[in-house]
What we know:
The complex is a heterotrimer. By secondary structure, chain B is an alpha/beta fold. Chain B has helices at about 1-20, 40-50, 65-75, 90-95, 125-135, 160-170, 185-195, 230-235, 250-265, 265-275; strands at about 30-35, 55-60, 80, 100-115, 125, 150-155, 180, 200-205, 210-215, 215, 240-250. In chain C, the strands form 2 sheets. Chain C has a 4-stranded mixed sheet. In chain C, strands 5-6 form a two-stranded antiparallel sheet. The mean pLDDT of chain C is about 85. Chains in contact: A-B, A-C, B-C. Chains A and C meet through helix 1, helix 3, helix 4, helix 5 and helix 6 of A and helix 1, helix 7, helix 8, helix 9 and helix 10 of C.
Amino acid sequence: MISFPKQVDREKRLHQAIAFWIARIISYSILLILFLILFFILKRGIGVINWEFLTAMPIDGMTKGGILPAIVGTLYLVLMSMIIAFPVGVLSGIYVNEYAKEGAIKQFVKMMTNNLAGVPSIVFGLFGMALFVNRLGFGASILAGSLTLALLALPLIIRTTEESLKAVDDTFRHASYALGASKLRTIRKVVLPIAFPNIITGLILGIGRVSGETAPILFTVAAYFLPKLPQSLFDQAMALPYHLYVISTSGTNIQASRPIAYGTAVILILIVLGMNLLANFVRSHYSRKVKMK
Amino acid sequence: MIMKNSLLFTALCLLGYACGGPGSSATKSITVKGSDTVLPVAQKTAESFMAANPGVSITVVGGGSGTGLTALMDGNTDIAMSSRDLKADEKLKLQDKQIEFEIKTLAVDALAVIVHPSNPVQRLTREQLEGIFTGSITNWKDLGGEDAPIVVYSRENSSGTYEFFKEHVMDKKNYASSVLNMPATGAIVQSISQTTGAIGYIGFAYMTPEVKPLEVSYDQGQTFVGPSMESAKDKSYPISRPLYYLYDVKNAEKVAAYMDYVLSAEGQQIVEQVGYIPLSK
Amino acid sequence: MKRLVERSAEGLIKACGFASALTVLLIVFFLFKEGISFLNSSPVEDHHALFVHSGNPVTQLEEGQIKDLFDKKINHWKQLTDYGHPVVLLTANDLERLFTPEQLGNNLEYLSACVAHYIDTVPGTLAYFSERQLSLSPAIRIVPVPNISLWKFLSGRQWFPTAQPAAMMGTLPLILGTLLVSLLAILIALPLGLAAAIYLAEIADPRMRNILKPVIELLSGIPSVVYGFFGLVVIVPFIQNLFGLPVGETALAGSLLLAIMALPTIITVSEDAIRTCPIAVKEASLALGASHWQTIFRVILPYASSGITAAAILGIGRAVGETMAVLMVTGNAALMPTSLTQPVRTIPATIAAELGEASFGGLHFKALFALGCLLFLITLATNLLVERTTSKSRKS
């Protein structure tokens, strides 16, 4: 039996204690910094938010009034981009996980969607401008902006769909096949219902992502000021992130519009965090349900 | 089942959304697009014009002079705002497309050269400004100030303001590479107000007490004039430029009421409120 | 009938899968179509040219030389070639000063004659005119300007995309600026993020971990424009005061902001990597008498190294493509970066700031698309790198 001298043992413990404390301190300082950022903005912005701020049009060169058109614009963009991206993304996820055979094609599709996830958002903006705005002639419009945002959200939805389908135990599939169900029927009646809550998580995360993006909508949809809410898919729209960008950097009276900028930032943060929280809730709620079964 | 419901729901949304479109044609709608410098004027005049004419709706979109002119050529906007003259390739394109434009000056913008309020320097000649922005003068002590490096702020290289300053202040010479480019004028004001050695130029409308305007001389230092509404109106302040509205002559009738309003006494009053110099009669 | 429905449904699924996969190719196609056409075009504006006296022996002028000539840094032809005359510039703006309206004619029909006469009498003239306005005569000739090559685009040190008469499209300062800001951001974020990941995976109470991890994940969702806004109002003045700098918009400010933004991603990904270390390996190390810390440092971290590398590369990829936050805090001066306390200009910020004002389909517009291609290639490379490191770890 070899035993370390006490000296070494103590040294070892001391090292460990120091290292652990450093890790602990760093972790908490990171959290602290992130919270300080949130707090800094919330403190200045939360007081601005009231019913009028949410439901009024901007007035007086956007230094007073509300941000209704930006909220509605973001809502339209999120809705439209999800209408496009969600079905396509889910079907693609089903293809990758259920239909594609292992091998070159599956590898190719996976590689492509992975790479799509890594494309910087400004590149999506460039592409959207070249294809939707100019080539297809949509002009800067909700349609062009939503299509661009849909592409951005696509890999996220594909990946969550794929992961949630993968999580469905194969015994379910085999049982369904044994009962004589076809592959499509099995997917529709057995696999999808089980995977559905997780797929929805992807949708919610996609909404969070899409509502906060500025670069892709810069040249495809964003408007500085609209007198009315957008009326059709071919109208331009205001949007929360772009609104925050313009009122914090342009406009002739920056100081006067600062409160609006902070208020807009708070709304944006609340939407994005709210969506993430919702996704977490759906995920944990569902996993608990499965355990109970 | 869930799937079906959600599909139905989205389909309904889509339908309701699409149907919203045609109803809008009852009101007249005008789009104004382009230069970020002209934006505040366009936005405020649009606001009050619509208050007086409930039947009209005016959309104001920024994006820059280039965006506005392109949109005008493609018929995507009724009025283009511009803070610069047409570029050669834009003129050629117009010729090729056989579009005839009306160019109207709606206001004059005086460019103020600004520094941090604590800077002791009060006045500069055009030649000194040229030296600063082309990078041959880099320290405030050469200009009678403290021994501190000069931090130069400018607008983005594609903006009309950048071009104008280059042409009329810098004798068409290029900016030094070390110049900081800010995406918008507001950002320049913000940065100069928190940087002691900074210098930059902004539209007079953006003046705030947090920054100090300099007097400039265009006659080798004989007379210095500071930017103000008066000096710009009587044209004694040398750095000022026109701001334009452009529209297709085919659309003249559609935009006439709004154009008249902007150029009317009332419209020009708004121009002055926003901080630009109204057109002298 | 049922068969048919099923067939078409399956067809739809397959079509969607392929459509999604092909989106990347579509992006590549459109991006590169605009971007590539930029190469091999002339830096001089369409239908415009530089004219000199036919006796002037200059064979060609590079963009840099043209800029120096028009900036009046080159005053004498001797500096360029064997020609003993001082440089005199002549552009359309000088016409009014030099000629009377009668001389030029109502529709500038005598412009060619006037300019030709002027150049003939002032042999050092360098004139910049539209080829449509100016017809050639024996006294004058056009100086060729070499086209923009890929090499010049990548290695040029000056970014003056709107310079007249010849645009300078050197992207080296932009490329280096982008890499500097993102690499420094990861250098700051990686050790901190790794420490936090170790804490979460190994040290923290599981209950604590269950609270902290979702919170950190939440923070990765804050929009970049919010971070940019915060950076502009807080980090920029902070950096300026801390180091007593003349200016706060620096590479450092951008890196710091990007580091904060990258932290959640790095923490999440490396924590996942650390937790893949099998219990058996850990227990073996502990059983040999190693302390928990020694086990983490000597056993778990090496085991998770490829996952951590992937986290770092992923972080760099994100940082490289980040647009709005960087645009708002780095000052955007297209300088060759030499220090951290200097303003820099990144590729995404350049695209976002300039595209709106560039005239559509023009040289500048195409150059920005070429920058987009460059950005795409950089992120593609980092993505492939991530894939390789993670697949390698899976195999081992």
